[in-house]
Amino acid sequence: GDGQHAPEYLDAILAPVKNGSVDIAIGSRFLGKSKFKSSIGRLIGIYIISRVLTIITRKPVTDPTSGFCAMNKKAFGFFSENCVDDYPEPDILMHHREFRITEVPISISRRSRGVSSISPLKSVYYMCKVLFSLFVGIFR
Q1: Secondary structure of 35-72 in the HEC alphabet?
Q2: What distance lies between CA 7 and its chain's CA centroid?
Q3: Could you tell me which residues are beta bridge partners of residue 104?
Q4: Which of 14, 39, 91, 96 has the most CB atoms in a 10 Å sphere around its CB?
Q5: What is the pLDDT of residues 51-108, one digit of tens each?
Q6: Phi and psi at residue 31, to the nearest 5°
Q7: Are 125 and 133 in contact (CB under 8 A)?
Q8: Is 26 in a helix, a strand, or coil?
Q9: pLDDT tens-place string over residues 17-58
């Protein structure tokens, strides 16, 4: 990918899935001693989505936009057919009743190549779209 996710965290992400204790393990940049730095706008967006998901799921969600995750065959099969393409991470967390989900502390680096697909203008659209989807998900 873009060099943000360090391979040394693969074992930590894979272990709870491989040992069967969870269906999905998500790497959290906000647990442990991560040196994650981002723009204030992006941090506010992550915080808002995190709070909404924590209220909806009644479980603490620290990093709802982390794309660094592992899942078992059952979860992968479900999400390959039912997950939205442009904001899968919060959508996955909405399925807390169907799947056992945990967050694992990770640290990420600055992007070493490529550019983010989410520009400042797109981030506002993304935020609205994700929040709308989460609120619709409550009534599914």
Answers
A1: CCCCCHHHHHHHHHHHHHHHHHHCCCCCCCCCCCEEEC
A2: 18
A3: 27
A4: 91
A5: 998 888 888 889 888 888 899 999 999 888 877 666 567 777 776 678 899 999 988 7
A6: -105, 155
A7: no
A8: strand
A9: 999 999 999 999 888 776 767 778 778 888 998 999 888 888
